[in-house]
Every structure is written in C-alpha cells, then in structure tokens.
Amino acid sequence: MTIIVANGEKPSAPQCIELLHSAEAIVCCDGAIRHLEELGVKPTVIVGDGDSLTAEQRNRYASIIDADPSTDYNDLTKAFRYCEAHGLDNITILGGTGLREDHTLANLGLLLRYAGRFRVRMVTNYGIFSAIGGTTTFASRAGEQVSIFSFTPTMRLTFHGLRYPVAQRTFAELWEGASNESLGDSFTIELHDKGQVLVYQAFKGQFS
C-alpha cells in the first residue's frame, strides 16, 4: 500500500498513524513534510514545486525530492502522477481534508477522478471516503454512520444492509444520501447505471 500525505489536517487518528507505519511507500506533498516531521516519519519521496520547503528541508531531503515546477497541477495531482509513473496503484490519501475547505473539495474531486485508474481511498481523522463506479460491498460494523453522495443525478442506486434502504432510486441532490447507518458487518451500494459515487464511513464515535 502507498500512502499519499497531502497538506491538510495533520493525520492524528490511530487509524491514520497505523496506516503510516504499515505503508510500503509514502509519497509526501511538499507542504505536508511538517506533519511527517512532527510524527517522526520519513517519506519515500517528496513531490511538488518545493515552494513550501525551507532551505534546511531542501538540503535534508535533497536525495528524495521529485521536483515538478509546473503550475498546471496542484501537489496532490503531482503525487498521483508520480504514483502512476512508478506503478503504485494501491493508494490511501491522508491529510486530504481540513484547514482549507476549497482544498478539501478539490481533493475529493481528484479522488473521484483517479478512482478509475487506482485502487484509492481517502482516510481522514474522522472516517473514510471511497470513490466507486460500480456495485461495491463494504466491510462495516453495526451502527456505523454511512453517507452516500451520488455525482450522477440520473444514476439509479440500491442500498443493501443500511437502516434506510432504497431501491433503484436517483439522487438529484448530494445531501439526499447522507446520514445512513450500517446494520451489520457489511453493506452494499448497487449501481444500476454508469456513474460516480462517494461513500463515507465514519469512525466509531464520530457523528453518532
């Protein structure tokens, strides 16, 4: 598994720390190096234009900086491009939300964009975002808070294993699939048409 660390809220939840320590590779956006330094974790590579690094950091990490001065892509996109170029396709994003709401929206958009190319999810300090384009079953627990956001208003969805099931329903607004609840150790989101969906699973104790 490859971890991409973005420059949002510092990963601090136990689930995030465990992921960092079990990663096979850590791709760090340059602005997020401060998070890893505070956590005592060294990245495999630092990507970005380097404008967020101090002179001391540029010297310290010179051997692992993959500089990309392009202004056509943000740092998370550059991290995805690095992963694609190096055959890294099982990706978890940390630090992708928080601090800047506009960056959060942009990063969730990138999660949807790259879901077709990678096995990818975004883990925050509060839960997990997964982007899907086909019927998917999720490991869960009874009482887990779940939200489903359809980005294709004409797509029909069916929910199995959730407290508020629906059958072949379309969702015209993002809020319509929010705040559901798992009934057991798994649930399934069935897609009857082509489209994009974000599924959010809150960690225990969050939003309950």
What are the key terms here?
29% strand; 2 domains; three-stranded antiparallel β-sheet; ten-stranded mixed β-sheet; 208 residues; elongated; alpha/beta; Jelly Rolls; Rossmann fold
Explain what this protein looks like in three dimensions.
With 208 residues, the chain is α/β, with parallel strands linked by helices. It folds into 2 domains: 2-125, Thiamin pyrophosphokinase, catalytic domain (Rossmann fold, 3-Layer(aba) Sandwich); 131-202, Thiamin pyrophosphokinase, thiamin-binding domain (Jelly Rolls, Sandwich), CATH 2.60.120. The protein contains 5 helices and 13 strands. The strands form 2 sheets. Strands 4-3-2-1-5-6-7-13-9-11 form a 10-stranded mixed sheet, with helices on both faces. 34% of the residues are buried.
Number of helices: 5
Name the CATH superfamily assignment of the largest domain: Thiamin pyrophosphokinase, catalytic domain
Low-confidence stretches: none
The major β-sheet equals: 10 strands, mixed
Please specify the SSE layout and strand pairing.
Layout: E1 2-5, H1 14-22, E2 25-29, H2 33-39, E3 45-48, H3 55-60, E4 65-67, H4 75-85, E5 90-94, H5 101-114, E6 119-123, E7 127-132, E8 136-139, E9 145-150, E10 157-160, E11 180-181, E12 186-191, E13 197-202
Parallel strand pairs: 1-2, 1-5, 2-3, 3-4, 5-6
Antiparallel strand pairs: 6-7, 7-13, 8-12, 9-11, 9-13, 10-12
